[in-house]
Amino acid sequence: MNLELFNNVQFIYELALAELELSAMGVDYSVGSSLRTFTGPNDIDVENLQKRAAYFQAVDGKTTDYTHLVSRNITRSPNQYLTHWIYPYKGKYHPQMIRALLNVIGAEPGNIILDPFIGSGTTALECQLLGIDSIGTDVSQVCSLISKVKTESIEVLDEIEAMKEEVYKGFQDKTLFDFDGDQYKKKDSGNNILEEVTNEKVKNFYKVAELIAHSDRSRRRKKDFFQSFKKNVEKMITSTRDFKEVVEELELALGKVQIGIGDARNLELKDNSIDGIITSPPYSIALDYVKNDAHSLSALGYDLDKVKEDFIGVRGSGKTKVDLYNNDMEKSYQEMNRVLKDGMKCVIVIGNATIQGQEVATVDMTINCFEKMGFTLEKNMDKIIFGLYNVMQRENILIFKKSE
Length: 404
What we know:
This protein is an alpha/beta fold. It is built from 15 helices and 16 strands.
């Protein structure tokens, strides 16, 4: 059996993850001299590899499912295929890495994977594509909304397309906004067409298109709001259509997705109810997520000062801010320990943040916390970061196993 890596695999951690996912799927392999081809025995489940592998574009000359997925890309980044690209969220991690990590921890259909810091929904969408059920929560209303749109719009695509022209007309007549600092202020008193949409999933789709237009307007002050909204709707419909077509072509049985607004420090989940965790905690002591998404939060009608009280790492300043962040993260890790089944794995993707020129040893804090709770650190992989929306230059992929 022969396996070929994707041409865009270029970092050591990607090669390491490719090897880890093969080992997790029971493949006794050897690496070729070019480091781009692998060989293995002929008596393995080739079909399973073709359906699940993240870093391999072909198995015995046959393209993998992931090759088909990434071919449905309408952005400049190879890691923003299907609906992954929706909304310019800072700090998002690569879906290819998440797919590989799901393989590494042995996640299977019927399992429930948790991401308590769902962010832009990458974990949920990759679980969905692999037929694995997932639960995602986030304290951010914006994160919850965009994650739902990425995973749920496929269910209502026909209805989304059917009312597109009506929404366009309504948006041309509706209330427009002027950007003023971190707030959007109304120009006039028109009616919002979205308030008339009864299907929540359809309404969410157009809300996110509106939020992207607000984001475009905040970064490019002269950009026309309606034209930006319309352009984003068309791109989002194309991506959702691609999603639906790929599901049919590959005969994918999608996993169930449950996403909501929630606090990682107090998860509304039963003890020992989760089969695996993959998450990336917020870098909020270095990146103010409230300020970064101020345009979207304001457009959704939220009070930014009140929202800040709920976010981890945003409160306080200097040493107090770091102490509050560490305390909140320990509470979050304890909750992960509580809901995770014995013997299961938890993956934390995290880096040392810098505040006021001082590096905060977030990685060591995380390792110490999990080891005190009885977890074993199975892997600590350095990860160089690249991509359009990344705010860190280096992270660590920490793979823990909970004691039996």
